[in-house]
Amino acid sequence: MTTTGDEKGTTLDERVTGGSSSDTSKRRVAYIVLRFPSLSETFIVREIHALRERGWQIDIYPLWRDNPDQVHLDVPPLLPSVRSKHPLTIATLTSALRMLLRRPGRYLSALRYVLSDLRRHPRRTFIGLGLFPVIVWMADDLERRGVQHVHAHFASYPTLAANIIQRLTGISYSFTAHAFDLYVDPSHLPNKVHDATFIVTISEYNRTLIRRMSDGVTPVHVIHCGVSIPAMLPPFDPRSTEIVSVARLEEKKGHTYLIEACRILRERGISLHCTIVGGGPEMGRLWAQVETAGLEGVVDLVGPQTSERVQEYLSHAGVFVLPSVVTASGNAEGIPVALMEAMAAGVPVVSTEITGIPELVVNDETGLLAPQRDATALADAIERLLTNEELRERLRVAAFEKVQTEFEIGDNAREIERHFAAVIQD
What we know:
This protein is of the alpha/beta class. The protein contains 16 helices and 14 strands. Helix 2 packs across helix 3 (104-115) and helix 3 runs antiparallel to helix 5. The chain starts with 9 loop residues before the first strand and ends with a helix. 46% of the residues are buried.
């Protein structure tokens, strides 16, 4: 269960280690990620576990090292497969020297590639330069370990790393594009798209965006982020007036409109209680909004919670609400995993009509959608569900069937496995 970007789970007793010895297995892929473990990216952890269960060896290469005190229960088994180095170590400097002496042309060409964007995007260039020693070490390590293919999660710096590794070694790469890495500033994408063996993205909405900047040669596959689906539709209390929202507290999640919708519903005399699970930069502002609206005791911001605790909240929920918005910078959701998980838990959902969300929440079929930033319309949708038991039952049954057939992690892992196998066999 995804909770929030800073939720807490089991204590991390085991630290990242060096990993296993070289293996030239045909069922081996390296994953490049921003950070590992990252508490907000449980979808990556699930994908890796699903592939491992199907016999794949996945080496995990984070660009930044994270050693949090607590992690999710399913993270520790993956830690021995994590390989990482700080930028300035004997290992990274040795790899850089070895690569420069062995392939000076490729090394200097890759460095020029990083610098080519300096005039238009100095910040992005400086971050790329800071990561360059780690990426060169990754390239050297991958080559020595016999890894034939790299997959990056997010089209931003992880895919930059995969692209540089290809330029240094010839190792092929693919990547999964999610949301902010496509929407906020797509100017970095054309070279990455052109050089990739294939691209995965999480929605048809995203595939359309990527195809606009591609040469039509690189295949783009839609593979949804998957969740674990129970065998049977979970029980549901049709009398519940509990509203639950689970998401990191940041602008694009739209919590301010949920709080305003609760105020409107209370004015209409609707009985309700709202629990918002998550931590983040908006916490102080949202608490102030709750107090100003006189909603203390009606709306509770309970902070980050464990997966098990989130499941408890969902088991008592009458409605799950995620009023996502597109920010002024273009930042937005892809298809929120929290919505998938609420639907898998048998809870009727309300969200907004942006990006790929309507591919999951089909209005009046698998949930209800409201226009973004419209608290009155959001309140109307919540009221419809809270006051219509027949509607709630119809929507939650259809929602469960939707995630069961299109968003199950095992099915999605089989799909990405098929593309990995085709590349490696070639």
